[in-house]
């Protein structure tokens, strides 16, 4: 270990952080080849019949199941609706606390919107689809039109100006970026294939309100006939990192799992770096201790070296504070 002091030590520390940032960025950008789809997606979102009634009401159609997750990815303060559509007569199967086994034809949809945009009206920006076909996941993004009546398939991504009021009553403006299909492959990569990120069994293993009653979501899925019968009593749950009553370390690791580990893990696009931020990775093997100062810098500073590289155009203030508090607790 090197010991430095005064301005010289501070300058050296900043230089080391910059060098490390460059190395990490190059490792992330020099990943494997792009992952192509093996299906042709339909031109309009309405063709998938995910909603009934008026589309902007986002009411799931019959046979389409809404899903909630314990901890989620931060995407420029957007709210999200997650839907699951499984072919009739087919079911997911639990395989430990990771991703379930999905039947062929499964469709996962995630719609991004802002409840208080403009004059207090809801603005729906995009819907992302993951379609499992012939043993392979395929990704597509759809941009909602100005009339909010439908969404059209994108091939090159898009930038959408958004004005909204956050949960603290603060008015914000940002240039929301809808990803390209190749961008989807950056985060959803596992080796040379795409995989879902959020619907891990441990992230679905939460209580949800159904008809005014709190029930375990996995049990609810079994009753709906989309999940095979299984004993869920021994399945772990991913902590809700927004719940301040939880243990700081567990909340921080859950945040890193959902916001960073999709790249910084085995088989992720940043697998060659010194970080493995998967929730189940033992701390001494994560690289957090070595990279802790650089992690906070890259999360809180926008620009070329910001992390995560895709999906955010503004820092997650609450998330940065959580990780900063966690890093400080390691020093203490």
Oligomer: single chain
Strands of the widest sheet, in order across it, are 1-2-3-4-5-6
Shape: globular
Write down the Rg: 21 Å
What is the number of E strands?
12
Walkthrough of the structure:
This protein has 332 residues and is an alpha+beta fold. It folds into two domains: 20-33 and 238-331, no CATH class; 45-224, no CATH class. The protein is 25% helix and 23% strand. It has helices at residues 6-29, 181-187, 201-204, 217-224, 248-259, 288-300, 317-331; strands spanning 64-67, 79-85, 107-117, 121-133, 136-144, 151-154, 158-165, 171-178, 189-190, 193-194, 207-210, 213-216. The chain has a six-stranded antiparallel beta sheet. A hairpin with a 2-residue loop joins strand 11 (207-210) and strand 12 (213-216). It is globular, with a radius of gyration of 21 Å. The two termini are 19 Å apart.
Notable features of this structure?
332 residues; alpha+beta; disordered N terminus; globular; two-stranded antiparallel ribbon; 2 domains
């Amino acid at each position: 270990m090197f010991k430095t002091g005064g301005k010289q030590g501070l300058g050296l520390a900043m230089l080391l952080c910059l060098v490390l940032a460059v190395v990490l960025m190059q490792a992330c950008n020099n990943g494997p080849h792009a992952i192509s789809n093996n299906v042709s997606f339909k031109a309009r979102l309405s063709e998938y019949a995910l909603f009934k009634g008026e589309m902007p009401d986002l009411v799931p159609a019959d046979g389409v199941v809404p899903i909630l997750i314990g901890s989620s990815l931060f995407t420029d303060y957007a709210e999200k609706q997650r839907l699951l559509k499984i072919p009739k007569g087919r079911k997911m199967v639990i395989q430990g606390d990771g991703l379930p086994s999905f039947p062929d034809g499964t469709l996962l949809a995630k719609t991004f919107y802002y409840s208080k945009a403009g004059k207090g009206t809801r603005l729906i920006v995009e819907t992302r689809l993951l379609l499992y076909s012939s043993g392979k996941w395929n990704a597509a993004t759809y941009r909602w039109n100005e009339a909010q009546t439908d969404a059209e398939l994108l091939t090159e991504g898009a930038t959408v100006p958004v004005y909204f009021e956050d949960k603290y009553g603060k008015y914000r403006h940002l240039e929301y970026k809808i990803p390209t299909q190749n961008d989807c492959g950056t985060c959803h990569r596992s080796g040379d294939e795409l995989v879902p990120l959020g619907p891990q069994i441990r992230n679905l293993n939460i209580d949800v309100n159904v008809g005014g009653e709190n029930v375990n979501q996995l049990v609810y899925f079994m009753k709906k006939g989309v999940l095979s019968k299984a004993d869920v009593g021994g399945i772990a749950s991913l902590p809700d990192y927004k719940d301040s009553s939880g243990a700081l370390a567990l909340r921080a690791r859950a945040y890193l799992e959902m916001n960073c580990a999709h790249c910084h893990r085995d088989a992720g696009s940043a697998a060659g770096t010194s970080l493995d931020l998967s929730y189940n990775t033992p701390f001494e093997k994560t690289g957090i201790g070595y990279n802790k100062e650089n992690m906070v810098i890259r999360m809180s500073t926008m620009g070329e070296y910001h992390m995560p590289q895709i999906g955010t155009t503004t820092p997650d203030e609450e998330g940065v504070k959580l990780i900063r508090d966690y890093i400080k607790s390691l020093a203490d």
